[in-house]
UniProtKB/TrEMBL annotation:
Protein name: ABC transporter ATP-binding protein
GO CC aspect terms: ATP-binding cassette (ABC) transporter complex, substrate-binding subunit-containing
An annotated Gene Ontology molecular function: ATP hydrolysis activity
Keyword annotations of the record: ATP-binding, Cell membrane, Membrane, Nucleotide-binding, Translocase, Transport
Every ABC transporter domain range: 4-234
Keyword Membrane found: yes
SUPFAM superfamilies on file: MOP-like, P-loop containing nucleoside triphosphate hydrolases
Gene3D superfamilies per UniProt: 2.40.50.100, P-loop containing nucleotide triphosphate hydrolases
The keyword Ribosomal protein is annotated on this UniProt entry: no
Superkingdom as given in the UniProt entry: Bacteria
Length: 347
């Protein structure tokens, strides 16, 4: 039985349809990232699962129990918020144990869980401090500890790392993921950051305009995007989409090579990233459509330089020019215009 089962969930405010017919399930111990651009309905979905927003229609089941209309306190869920939501006048220990006290869990049991969790999140020396005396990363650990001691069947996390600086965020991602795996926690994690979702999640639920664009493993979304929205949202720089009139052909920047035979292109500029260089060019025989390629190392190509670009036919993704849906039927690949031979790197 799935831990969480969401069926045809909808939320509308007047004419605004924030969430339309969302269905998905989460298995026990799974880490699912709820990903999508601003305004796609992530928070609304999370709030409906938490009981902070009433669905217009649809159902939510937790461990087989229908919780659609239950008040938040009776759902037995743990939550970690972006703002940490710590009580400033309570100590770290009191903050961590607040929920257990409210549920009248026995003192011995509370202390046992506190000892266990402080070791897990490395907060031992901070237990008597107030949140105002802690760093952002430590506050985040307190919020995590509070969710862990709840031992809830599902933990909802709403952009919990977005207030941390880039370095700490990276460290906390790895820490959080390893804790979740060690404890077998089931997590639904809201983020708008595809790197976070790709690196942490077992599966990603990608939303677009209140609907499910695709749900699957990070690899599935990357290698077989079901539509042009997924193709462009996952991957940085995004997948190139080239209109051929009949179809839209997708090619990832890392799959484009410079080649002595290939589609003529003119360089617009280079962006050096250390390990590689992103080159912007236009395809001169295809209406000057923009194409990006990722080449290893430091590439110095001047604006206006002429290139020939090629890629393997199996790296092409075909999409319907009108609906943007992935083509399951064979399509005429662009790369048949020029036979593939050994590629070379730009000097
Ligand atoms: N209380 C409300 N009343 C009316 N419209 C709302 C309300 N809350 C959200 N919306 C609308 O519903 C849509 C989805 O909003 P939601 O906050 O779920 O998006 P989100 O994906 O979480 O965005 P972000 O990443 O910016 O937080 C948006 O168009 C938003 O304006």
């Amino acid at each position: 039985m799935s831990q969480l089962e969401v069926q045809t969930l909808c939320k509308a405010w007047g004419d605004t349809r924030a969430v339309s017919d969302i269905s998905f399930s989460i298995e026990p111990g799974e880490f699912v990232a709820l990903l999508g651009p601003s305004g796609c309905g992530k928070s609304t979905t999370l709030k409906m699962i938490a009981g902070l927003e009433t669905p217009t229609s649809g159902s939510i089941r937790l461990n087989g129990r229908d919780i659609t209309r239950l008040p938040p306190g009776q759902r037995g869920l743990a939550m970690v918020f972006q703002s940490y939501a710590l009580f400033p006048h309570l100590s770290v220990a009191e903050n961590i144990l607040f929920g257990l006290k409210a549920r009248r869990v026995a003192v011995e049991e509370r202390n046992r869980r506190l000892r266990q969790v402080t070791e897990l999140v490395d907060l031992g020396p901070q237990l008597h401090k107030k949140p105002g005396q802690l760093s952002g990363g430590q506050c985040q650990r307190v919020a995590l500890a509070r969710a862990i001691v709840a031992e809830a069947p599902l933990c909802l996390m709403d952009e919990p790392l977005s207030n941390l600086d880039a370095k700490l965020r990276n460290e906390m991602r790895a820490e959080l993921r390893s804790l979740q795996q060690r404890l077998g926690m089931t997590v639904l994690y809201v983020t708008h950051d595809q790197v976070e979702a790709m690196s942490m999640a077992d599966r990603i639920l990608l939303l677009n305009q209140g609907r499910v664009a695709q749900m699957g493993t990070p690899q599935a979304l990357y290698s077989t995007p079901e539509n042009t929205f997924v193709a462009r949202f996952i991957g940085n720089p995004p997948m190139n989409l080239i209109d051929t009139g009949q179809h839209r052909i997708g090619i990832r920047p890392e799959h484009v090579h410079c080649h002595h035979q290939g589609e003529p292109a003119r360089v617009l500029g280079c962006d050096y990233h250390g390990a590689d260089t992103i080159i912007d060019a236009v395809l001169t025989r295809l209406g000057d459509q923009l194409i990006k390629l990722r080449l290893p190392g430091h590439q110095l190509l001047s604006c206006g330089a002429e290139l020939k670009l090629n890629w393997l036919p199996e790296h092409e993704h075909g999409f319907c020019a009108h609906s943007g849906q992935r083509l399951n039927t064979p399509f005429a690949p662009l790369s048949t215009y020029f036979p593939h031979t050994e590629s070379y790197h730009v000097a």
